[in-house]
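Quick one from the shared queue. A colleague (R.T.) flagged ENTH domain-containing protein as missing a structural entry in our internal table.

Convert sequence to structure tokens.
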Amino acid sequence: MSGGGTQNSLRKALGAIKDTTTVSLAKVNSDYKELDIAIVKATNHYERPAREKNIRAIFAAISATRPRADVAYCIHALARRLSRTHNWAVALKTLIVIHRALREVDPTFHEELINYGRSRNHMLNMSHFKDDSSPNAWDYSAWVRTYALFLEERLECFRVLKYDIEMDRPRTKDLDTAELLEQLPALQQLLFRVLGCLPQGAAVHNFVIRFALSMVASESIKIYQAISDGTVNLVDKFFEMQRPDALKALDIYRRSGQQAERLSEFYEVCKSLDVGRGERFIKIEQPPASFLQAMEEYVREAPRSSAVRKDQADKPKEVLAIEYKKTPEEQEKRSPSPPPPEPEKVEKVEEPIVEPPDLLGLNDPVPVASELDEKNALALAIVPVGWRTR
């Protein structure tokens, strides 16, 4: 154990030396030396949260009032810090800077971060990150990867919602069906990443990890509130939905119930770790099982949105008549000529024959075929115009 402790102390000392060297180089070579120094100091190897003055210096460089080139440089510097380090403390503190910027800086930073990810490999992709310097560092690395996934999903949620769930008021209670079916899955996926942020092993007792976890836990309250408001809105519209939308809504409703149960467990663990002091964790209530059964029964009998169009599509004669209208000459060639009149039958006077009433109309005179073709062709040429514009 003493050998492992000595090795760990040596790594920390080397990390401190590296930070000092980086700061010295920034003072000499960088055009953004003040910003570079603030980034290095805010994300150094020391296992404690960054000083607030360094955080504020970074936030000043990425505000909406600064040139976009300055913001782009800051994002690039943070991304470079993440990609080059193998130290869990440096990686975690860099992620904390990004997280706090998303919470405290204007939305233009979100947009710049998304654009940076589109032009390059996403800076928050840390699936291969690991610090194997000690058994504890291994547990810390696992939590760093989970935390990065949460931040990545947070950006994706902003892209879908067009606003930040922490900085702005949730709007899900006022959305229409199409918007709900798009936004609620994004919020539920973000809550899924929240639930994955519970620390394991040595990470449970790490102070810096608990600091980051407290921000995640506080945001989960607004995320769940937005999901709850949206689910109530969705339920109000549910029994008027066509079957495809109703199926999606039912999946959302089911997942909402499952996540509510897991979120209750998440809050209990946070309380036991003394995480989120001062936060009033909301009480999670499960929806009644009877209502879920009613929704499932409705889905089985819900109307299909494409039923009318399918019936119309099953009439090939009408489609052919719409696409191709015969000329009068072709109609005359194709339709048989009417039989010649028989004058002798008309002039001959016979005794009237009493027949039973023709209830089925079998004895009605047969209209001329060419007249029927012409009428049908004209009718079919008119009807589909309205059908197509529906």
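The two ends are 77 Å apart (CA to CA).
Confidence is low (pLDDT under 50) at residues 306-327, 345-349, 356-362, 375-390.
Added to the table.
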